């Protein structure tokens, strides 16, 4: 976590422990913390404070955006490369899934054909969590507005916050999901921006917190820590993006030049700064990840199922990557504090691991 | 040495890993994800993987999950369906050991730099005079050497079966003493990928056409009808109609003509049993050798002569259902095995 987030969190676990829904002094103090955080999140997300709904994370925000707006079978539309938090929510309401190009960017012609008067919600992510590819969100929004003017537009910006200015990049969306743990905050807290005037049915009912859109006692410490992390992220973002983008490209170039049979899944220009997605010919990423783990490199491949087993990546499948090519996928993620030493460690470990796997 | 322990989430593999850690080995646990559907039931369920992971945490070792579901489908499930379509009753547990645990998993372990893999099977591996032997488990009631008969001189040096030296009661006691959450877990039963509701008939019915057929006696006279010839196993008594003068058994299944031949116990008996696809633990047994033969996981060993094309029983025995494994022993040692034809 970012130190600012830890600092913000600690007193809320010890001194300021009131329930913000109450009316007494301790409750008011907690409520003060929540509303300060809401102001911060509104500023960094480019919305009004009243438009920020705190959730338990990106998955809940995504689920709420789909289930809270969808209106019967076929009323929800998303791309085939969405995070499962969106994809499964759309599948649950028998929605429509739209294909992509070879980089995993939504096909605008297919999108135009898929949306219409019956469309209640369209969900298109801003940055893909596996490949880092940036979606043509503004162009897609234009397509949706032209063909389905009444539809609500949701964007899953969970993988984008660290690298893009969401106040600009998501300005055209009606609903925006973010998650604190993706930008140096704690796990278990996130937010959904709900633009004024969007009708959204809360999915968790109870005490009516968050304008009746998300009941449940606030995670005060988590919310404050998220806001602190968001503030720090935005403060450093321009410099971080330049530094991490250069490290990411260095990593990709060094692996590609030192290991035969590696494909960089998406060029730098198509991606956000923090993700390096590579595919290794003749390698099973499951085995590669074990060897990297042994050497202190904690990476991932596609997405994991509930058991922890790797599943073939639906993102690569949507991009037209064959199952044989997809089996050697490796996703290396950078944080705000990644260093050149981390790149050195990763390159050494990857080179050694691939040699060992190819030798046997 | 570096050991990769195959952990199903059951008590035997939990204790396997524990014993290897105690013995000073560098142990890593891994659970194979072989099968799975929307329901969290049966083999490779999330709960089983969670149990294996939790045991590894308690033992202080790393745990990984290997998704071999594609290979399991191709090497075990698809042939299982195909065999039934041909009127043959396969043993998928043996094919899983042959293709998954002691091929795919073992190869993954070696590739990752491990010296050996370990499983929780109740059987013993011993090095005798420069050769490797596969022996029955110490706990005869739990002996699993039958389902491991495909292990050979190439695989046995890389396989550790520590609980094969123990009684099941002792295995559970070790797990209990260490506070492992798997200590009281029930033994796995039956074929792991068959659903509890509907079983084999539903599973096969969803994957292949089940053919209604006719029953005939050994003289060829009509003796009734049957709903699905693919579900009949040679030797079975159930579901073959009533009103017979004495107990009748399926003595032959011919899917091509949708005919099941039924007969008396005497008509089911054979002097010889044909066997193919032999594998040998060490050298092939010499034709004419006296052996003991086991034809089911916990069946009694029965004396016979190995004929090369099969076994000649000392006393006629029931015909073994085609597809079932026939395993040869001498005393405690597995010599090899093949598949009844």
Topology:
The complex is a heterodimer of chains A (360) and B (341).
Chain A: H1 3-14, H2 25-45, E1 52-55, H3 58-67, E2 76-79, H4 84-92, E3 96-98, H5 108-114, E4 121-123, H6 137-147, E5 152-156, H7 166-169, E6 175-179, E7 190-194, H8 220-258, E8 262-264, E9 275-280, H9 285-294, E10 303-304, E11 310-311, H10 314-318, H11 323-326, E12 329-333, H12 340-359
Parallel strand pairs in A: 2-3, 2-4, 4-5, 5-6
Antiparallel strand pairs in A: 1-7, 6-7, 8-9, 9-12, 10-11
Helix pairs in contact in A: 1-8, 2-8, 3-4, 5-6, 8-12, 9-12
Chain B: E1 2-6, H1 11-22, E2 26-33, H2 46-59, E3 63-67, H3 69-85, H4 92-111, E4 116-118, E5 123-128, E6 131-136, E7 159-160, H5 168-177, H6 199-207, E8 213-217, E9 222-226, E10 249-254, E11 259-263, H7 265-268, E12 269-280, E13 290-294, E14 302-306, E15 310-318, E16 325-330, E17 333-340
Parallel strand pairs in B: 1-2, 1-4, 2-3, 4-7, 8-11
Antiparallel strand pairs in B: 5-6, 8-9, 10-11, 12-15, 12-17, 13-14, 13-16, 14-15, 16-17
Structure report:
Chain A is of the alpha/beta class and about 350 residues long. Chain A has 12 helices and 12 strands. In chain A, the strands form 3 sheets. A 7-stranded mixed β-sheet of chain A has the order 1-7-6-5-4-2-3, with helices on both faces. In chain A, strands 8-9-12 form a 3-stranded antiparallel β-sheet. A two-stranded antiparallel ribbon of chain A has the order 10-11. In chain B, helix 1 (about 10-20) runs parallel beside helix 2 (about 45-60), helix 1 (about 10-20) crosses helix 5 (about 170-175) and helix 3 runs antiparallel to helix 4 (about 90-110). The relative contact order of chain B is 0.13. Chains A and B meet through helix 9 and strand 11 of A and helix 2, strand 3 and helix 4 of B.
């Amino acid at each position: 976590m970012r130190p600012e987030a830890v600092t913000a969190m600690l007193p809320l676990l010890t001194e300021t422990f009131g329930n913000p829904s109450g009316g007494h002094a301790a409750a008011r103090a907690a409520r003060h913390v929540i509303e300060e955080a809401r102001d911060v999140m509104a500023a960094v997300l480019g919305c009004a404070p009243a438009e920020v709904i705190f959730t338990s994370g990106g998955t809940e925000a995504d689920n709420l955006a789909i289930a809270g707006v969808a209106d019967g079978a076929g009323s929800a539309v998303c791309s085939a490369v969405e995070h499962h938090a969106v994809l499964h929510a759309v599948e649950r309401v028998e929605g429509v899934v739209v294909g992509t190009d070879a980089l995993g960017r939504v096909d605008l012609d297919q999108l135009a054909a898929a949306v219409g008067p019956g469309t209640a919600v369209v969900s298109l992510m801003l940055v893909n969590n596996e490949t880092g590819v940036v979606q043509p969100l503004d162009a897609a929004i234009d397509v949706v507005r032209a063909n389905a003017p009444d539809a609500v537009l949701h964007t899953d910006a969970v993988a984008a916050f660290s690298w893009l200015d969401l106040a600009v990049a998501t300005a055209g969306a009606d609903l925006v999901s973010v998650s604190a743990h993706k930008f140096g905050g704690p796990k278990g807290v996130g937010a959904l921006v709900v633009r004024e005037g969007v009708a959204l049915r809360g999915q968790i009912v109870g005490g009516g917190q968050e304008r009746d859109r998300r009941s449940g006692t606030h995670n005060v410490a988590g919310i404050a820590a998220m806001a602190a992390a968001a503030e720090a992220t935005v403060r450093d973002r321009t410099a971080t993006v330049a530094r991490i983008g250069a490290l990411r490209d260095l990593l990709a170039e060094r692996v590609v030049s030192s290991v035969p049979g590696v494909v960089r899944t998406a060029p730098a220009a198509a991606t956000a700064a923090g993700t390096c997605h590579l595919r290794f010919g003749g390698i099973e990423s499951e085995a590669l990840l074990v060897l990297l783990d042994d050497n202190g490199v904690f990476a991932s491949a596609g997405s994991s199922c509930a058991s922890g087993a790797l599943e073939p990546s639906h993102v690569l499948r949507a991009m037209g990557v064959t199952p044989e090519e997809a089996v050697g996928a490796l996703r290396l993620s950078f944080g705000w504090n990644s260093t050149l030493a981390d790149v050195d460690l990763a390159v050494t470990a990857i080179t050694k691991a691939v040699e060992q796997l190819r030798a046997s | 040495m570096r050991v990769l322990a195959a952990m199903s989430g059951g008590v035997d593999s939990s204790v396997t890993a524990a014993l290897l850690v105690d013995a000073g080995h560098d142990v890593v646990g891994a659970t194979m994800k072989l099968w799975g559907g929307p329901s969290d039931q049966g083999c490779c369920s999330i709960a089983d993987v969670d149990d294996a992971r939790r045991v590894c945490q308690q033992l202080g070792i790393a745990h990984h999950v290997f998704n071999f579901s594609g290979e399991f489908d191709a090497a075990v499930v698809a042939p299982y369906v195909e065999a039934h379509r041909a009127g043959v009753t396969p043993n998928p547990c043996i094919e899983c050991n042959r293709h998954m645990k002691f091929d795919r998993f073992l190869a993954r372990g070696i590739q990752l730099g491990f010296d050996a893999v370990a499983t929780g099977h109740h059987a013993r591996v011993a090095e005798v005079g420069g050769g490797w032997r596969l022996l029955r488990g110490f706990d005869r009631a739990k002996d699993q050497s039958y389902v491991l008969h495909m292990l050979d001189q190439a695989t046995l040096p890389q396989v550790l079966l520590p609980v094969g030296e123990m009684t099941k009661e002792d295995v559970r006691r070790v797990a209990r003493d260490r506070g492992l959450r798997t200590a009281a877990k029930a033994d796995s039963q039956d074929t792991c990928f068959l659903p509890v509701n509907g079983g084999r008939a539903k599973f096969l019915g969803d994957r292949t056409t089940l053919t209604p057929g006719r029953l005939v006696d050994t003289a060829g006279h009509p003796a009734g009808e049957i709903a699905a010839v693919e579900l009949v196993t040679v030797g079975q008594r159930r579901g073959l109609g009533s009103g017979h003068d004495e107990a009748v058994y399926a003595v032959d299944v011919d899917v091509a003509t949708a005919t099941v031949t039924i007969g008396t116990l005497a008509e089911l008996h054979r002097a010889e049993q044909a066997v193919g696809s032999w594998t040998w633990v060490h050298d092939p047994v010499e034709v004419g050798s006296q052996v003991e033969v086991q034809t089911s996981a916990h069946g009694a060993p029965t004396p016979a002569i190995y004929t090369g094309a099969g076994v000649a029983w000392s006393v006629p025995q029931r015909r073994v259902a085609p597809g079932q494994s026939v395993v040869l022993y001498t005393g405690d040692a597995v010599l090899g095995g093949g598949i009844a034809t």
